[in-house]
Amino acid sequence: MPFKIIASQCTGCSACEPECPNVAIAEKAGTFVIDPKKCTECIGHFDEPQCVAVCPVDNTCVIDTSLARYREPARAEDRT
Amino acid sequence: MDAPTQQEASSSAIEIGEITRVLAKQKGCGTSSGSGSGWAGCGSQANRGDLPAETWEKVKNHPCYSEEAHHHYARMHVAVAPACNIKCNYCNRKYDCANESRPGVVSERLTPEQAAKKVAAVASTIPQMTVLGIAGPGDPLANPEKTFKTFELVREAAPDLKLCLSTNGLALPDYVDTITKFNVDHVTITINMIDPVIGAKICPWIFYKHKRYAGIQAAKILTDRQLQGLEMLTARGILCKINSVMIPGINDRHLLEVNKAVKRRGAFLHNIMPLISSPEHGTVFGLNGQRGPTARELKALQDGCEGEMRMMRHCRQCRADAVGLLGEDRRAEFTTEKLMDIDVKYDVESRKVYQAKIEEERAAKSTAERADLTKRADSVSDIKLLVAVATKGAGLINEHFGHAKEFQVYELSSDGAKFVGHRRIDPYCQGGYAEEGSLATVIEAVSDCHAVFIAKIGSRPRTELIKAGVEPVDEYAHEPIDTSTVAWFEAYLDRVSSGAIEHEERGDAAIRPRPLTSAA
Ligand code: SF4
Ligand code: SF4
Ligand code: SF4
Fold it and tell me: What pLDDT, in 10s, does the model give residues B380-413?
């Protein structure tokens, strides 16, 4: 299940765009969007979904949390 | 911190030691007692403070690095790289960074191509424009492609401009070679701590090597990378300035340690800036009530660091897209819309001619000052006090009290007049109508000063100032700040010794230092 960016939260800072290993993120009218067909949740590339880890605004890059991988909070800061 | 220790054993450490020695040797200048930088008159080194000759050559026409140069030269920032790789509690990236010399909202984000065109257009319109900086919003090295592409295009379009870069330092060691390759003149690194326990209170997380790190672990990585990057740059002869944000109760005392650490690694200038934290900025600090320092607290810390190295006092914490002379933002004249139609003809030669003229004027001025200063080398007193000056620049007392957007603050002592900071205010007299409330605020902003020097002042503000215990001084209208304030100070000392007046200390100013964000 792919990630998506909640447009109303996105600041358009562009931090996520270059981090995506699948080039799934692009700018669209000032905010950024994820192409669901390209997003692989970073599985096989990195331990954490890169867009989530780099995004300065919490809960902006989100996924269906019913997926096993996200039942635990994905962020180091939430665990500390 | 293993990285810095290893570095110290390497050959680069020798060069750093050399720089430090040269800096130490150059400290203290002729007549005064080795008081270091910032003094308005310092013998033949009048305006260069304690910098070695080769460093002075590099910074003399950089408005951000020399209080004196900023009256003559202009700089420009382009906002091309909004991404960032760390989270700071004093920053709300939704509205761009509120600290680190780049507060406010950046209205325009440019592509590297637009940025290069804008730079060339501005520099051909403003011949005193000498510096192009990339300072965010965000961290330029979190967006290296856009940043270096911009540098590359600017190098082609405007080859005589100096390039500079501001970074949080996390990615810095990876880009030192690229920075060297692009001939970047100056790098500013924001370093708020060298103790990860303190760092964790300032930066909750970092994004590093594809992972998010939090807390002390994150701060440890950050400080190691910053100091390593600093060492690598100074070893390559690239000038490094350190910015630190002073956060009372968190890193205020600690910044003395930071100052020592960065000086040891070859930084040539330290700029300690006050935390800006209003709740409306929506930063973590703003929302949890973390206060910024008072003018006096800031000055005390800057004074405490002064013995260690040159301190920067004239920072206006400008926006990431500021254009023009410090304090006189002209960015509205150069919007992207207007620029893209202009056909730019960039003429390096005519720029050189213009700048040579500026240098002549500066040289003439500093010779005049020098002669004047030797005369009063023998007046000695323990009295030190602050005065505020209303100026439009060029080192003159040439602004009307009611029109001043800021006051420059000088500390007067037997050593002369030393620039120690500035107070931003809203002009009291807007469109000819004096406003009650704002007069009180303006007076509060200078309430720690003994006198205010102005070109002109109305009778009501004059009365109010005197009531507040601040002497309005207008007899030096349109004369140089340094000689006038010193002449006034000598007369003041005479009045004290003759018993005509009694010297009293004044309290802290009722103003929190503010950045240059009001101009919208
Ligand atoms: S989860 Fe990974 S693959 Fe999916 S959009 Fe984010 S960065 Fe790209
Ligand atoms: S990192 Fe977050 S805020 Fe920045 S562009 Fe991507 S989704 Fe938007
Ligand atoms: S480094 Fe600068 S832009 Fe990035 S979060 Fe910190 S203050 Fe904001």
Answer: 678 888 899 988 877 788 888 888 888 888 888 8
- Asked if A11 has any chain B CB less than 8 Å from its own CB, the reply is yes
Nearest to B83 among A13, A76, A80 (CB): A13
Q: Global pTM?
A: 0.71
For chain B, say whether A29 makes contact (Cβ under 8 Å).
Answer: no
> pLDDT tens, B419-432?
777 777 766 665 44
* First vs last C-alpha separation in chain A: 27
DSSP 8-state secondary structure symbol assigned to residue B292: P
B421 CB contacts (<8 Å, ≥6 apart)?
A: B295, B298, B299, B302, B313, B314, B408, B409, B513
* Nearest-neighbour CA in chain A from B158: distance (Å): 28
Instruction: Find the residue in A nearest to B144 (Cα).
Output: A18
Element (H, E) at B245: strand B239-246
Write the secondary structure of B207-243 as one string of H (helix), E (strand) and C (coil): EECCEEEEHHHHHHHHHHHHHHHHHHHHHCCCEEEEE
Query: What distance in Å separates residue B241's CA from the closest CA in chain A?
Result: 26
| B399 and B455 Cβ atoms separated by less than 8 Å | yes
DSSP category for residue B498: T
Q: Is the pLDDT assigned to residue B4 strictly greater than 50?
A: no
Are B232 and B175 within 8 A, CB to CB? no
